[in-house]
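User: Sequence for M18 family aminopeptidase below. Tokens please.
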Amino acid sequence: MDLTELEKSLTFQKKSVWSKRNKEDIDRYTSQYKDFINFSKTERKAATYSVELLEKNGFKPLSHYVNLGKIEKGDKVYFVNRDKAVFALKYNNPLKDGINIVGAHIDSPRFDLKPEPIVEDENIAMAKTHYYGGVKKYHWFNIPLELHGVVIKSDGSKIEVSIGQDENDPVFVISDLLPHLDRDLANKKVSEAFEAEKMNVLVGTTAISYDETDKIKNPVKLNILKILNDKYGIVEEDLVSAELEIVPALPARDVGLDKSLLASYGHDDRVCAYTGLTALIDAQTSVKNPAVLLVDKEEIGSDGNTGAKNHFWIYVLKKIAALAKEEELLQNIEEILTNSTLLSADVSAAVDPNYKEAHDLSNAPKLGYGITLMKYTGSGGKGRTNDANAELVGKVRNLFNKEGISWQIGELGKVDRGGGGTIALFFSEKGLDVLDAGVPLLGMHSPYEVASKADIYETYLAYKTFYEKFGK
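Assistant: Structure tokens for M18 family aminopeptidase:
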């Protein structure tokens, strides 16, 4: 008996993506991804970039087909939900046969400005914040920050705000206490040492007038409000109807002497959004209608009318069914859903050699070994998870094996130590087959997450293969 051959035939053989893919192809693809991730600092900007990319590649808004009164085989359609979520589909086959969807989220952990944010204390103007999603607060001190978002004025007009991304712009900082003065924090828990109400952004220190400061209660704050008024035409009350987000002012950069890694803010989960989007655009054939779904608010539970719990895409499907003259589906939309499969495209936690104790190493993804399949997420006893059926996992892995896609399996840390959720369960409850599948990361939820360029490219190829061949 040849034990080497026996081992090869019986054990799970994982292969580095770098050993099988052309480095130039990987670099070319991830260079284009850099453009996307550098622009897409918020969910609104990610949606804007996605729509522009779709339109460049022949996709048209749903309203175009409504005006035509029809959709035909070969048409490409997209729909935008409140500037924060996007659904795009290639109509290649009857809807009743189902859809192959890659679903990702385009929001990321960040700090939002409070509704009435500008305050002054000790002649320093600051903007008060409320953190969004799961963050380690100490990550956000003393790094350069940008401000992006929209303000709705009293006349109803919408003003786009973007400060810090241009090299000539100022940036913002949340200041930290120097180590010489923080000895009283040394014995506190991290969760207690860094208080959310002290995460205020520095916005200015000069008074509007030094001749009449005794007549004005907050002269520095007033100067900041005047600067905003001069630049954007807004007043303080307008900030109540605003969505202004504080994000890292850190461009995507290659990491390592071999430049094999890529660091950026917002890999979670815009890396899966971009790979899913470009895979849809590049897919040449399809067994079922391929679609990408990009949603908001995953980091805070997928609530709200732009989150995954709001199934606006089903409304779009009904519109498409009517335009495609598949009227029988309008009363039985479940026929589409139960014949559909969704890859819940979200990132996973790669093994960090510095923190191996956080993982079950036999069930943890590694950088450079391809897309990670996660049968379940959740926490503890699999609470709040989809837990994909074995049959679906079997179909996906067999397809990837047949097509030469590098894949690995993963869990989100040790059983009672780790845990987390994705959008998967909100689609399985509608009858779709759902499996989590995405890019492994180091430093997830930090201001500067790290991914392997090889995994990014391989995930793109995996989604493209799923679009083209899943369901045969």
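The chain has a mean pLDDT of 95.
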